[in-house]
Design brief:
The chain has two helices and two strands. It is α+β, with helices and mostly antiparallel strands. The chain starts with 5 loop residues before the first helix and ends in a 6-residue tail after the last helix.
């Protein structure tokens, strides 16, 4: 797991918006799913959705 501390990464602290949230799995800032406190980007969510109990309906 990556250390996402602002002091370590050198990023400025953001309290709101896209820069304040990152994926718990890969550390990406884009397309983070916050619903149900997942905090996963959409790419990581697709990889682990079945193991989390989500099912795909056709």
């Amino acid at each position: 797991m990556k250390n996402r501390d602002y002091k370590v990464t050198g990023r400025t602290v953001h309290t709101f918006g896209k820069g304040s949230r990152w994926c718990k799995r890969c550390g990406d800032y884009n397309a983070v799913i916050q619903k149900y406190d997942l905090d996963l980007c959409r790419r990581c969510f697709r990889e682990v959705a079945n193991s989390l109990g989500f099912r795909k309906f056709k």
